[in-house]
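Duplicate of #3305? Posting structure anyway:
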């Protein structure tokens, strides 16, 4: 045998460096924020398309312009 030490298992190496953990946390936070923004955009688009479908179903023809809710006050 030579005098080389065997490598330690992963659990015996100690905690990872703080710099790597901080970077991973920043990446995870950016991913969650991007996911939330994407979900907000998707829900807004689905609501808009639902309003257009309701407008078309009611028989109107100018449904692609600005939609005004019936409960909205007059300008």
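Output from current build:
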């Amino acid at each position: 045998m030579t005098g080389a030490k065997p490598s330690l298992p992963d659990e015996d190496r100690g905690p990872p460096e703080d710099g790597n953990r901080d970077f991973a946390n920043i990446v995870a936070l950016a991913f969650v924020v991007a996911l939330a923004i994407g979900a907000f955009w998707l829900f807004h688009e689905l609501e808009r398309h639902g309003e257009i479908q309701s407008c078309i179903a009611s028989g109107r023809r100018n449904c692609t312009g600005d939609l005004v809710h019936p409960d909205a006050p007059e300008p």
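Confirmed duplicate; merging threads. The longest helix spans residues 18-57. Residues 19-57 form one domain.
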